């Protein structure tokens, strides 16, 4: 965790400065990876001294985690609006897919940052970061699926935890397909189309059919 005194120092900075530091930090980490990212470059591009940067963050890792937390909050806020609604599960899934398409384009650097962690290049912190990133999302998915099961909106033989994991894998793969080179190429190999040339509505419709068949078709 980030030491309290550094976290408080950063929180006291102006919103404009915090926004700039995180924007530059996310760009540096997502484009170069954690190991090659340079905190001196981040400070310079953010328009602050390296001394001030170290008043805000004790280490490069602290800045990295703060950047990740920013991305988590953006996704969490979007998920809250969907998962807390009274919609049936499949309607939530449709909204989730649409939001993923929009979020992945609008906040591509956050997704690249997530992929940096998922690739385990920062292996020592992988388990801790996975819990920090995934815990909130997993709870939202599991709760929504369990509620749908209770209301007989989905097949009765499913396991909410496993289905939540499978659903998140689909959404994560879709996110990476919009932003990360390997996954973009993978998408084109399977579909024959560059994802930028494909209508999002086609993706939404087809993925929703896939999810519906998994959640509602009984043996």
Commentary on this structure:
By secondary structure, the chain is mainly α. It is 78% helix and 0% strand. It has 11 helices and no strands. The protein has helices at residues 4-11, 15-36, 39-46, 50-56, 60-83, 89-106, 108-118, 126-150, 160-179, 181-191, 200-216. Helix 7 (108-118) crosses helix 9. The chain is globular, with a radius of gyration of 19 Å. The N and C termini lie far apart (46 Å). The model has no long low-confidence stretch (mean pLDDT 89).
Task: Name the features.
219 residues; 78% helix
Topology readout:
Blueprint: H1 4-11, H2 15-36, H3 39-46, H4 50-56, H5 60-83, H6 89-106, H7 108-118, H8 126-150, H9 160-179, H10 181-191, H11 200-216
Radius of gyration, whole Å: 19 Å
Number of helices in the DSSP assignment: 11
Q: Tell me the major beta sheet.
A: none
Overall geometry comes to globular
| Helicity range | over 70%
Q: How would you classify the helix and strand content by structural class?
A: mainly alpha
Could you name the ranges where pLDDT drops below 50 across 5 or more consecutive residues? none
> Based on DSSP secondary structure assignment, what is the total number of beta strands?
0
Content of β-strand:
under 5%
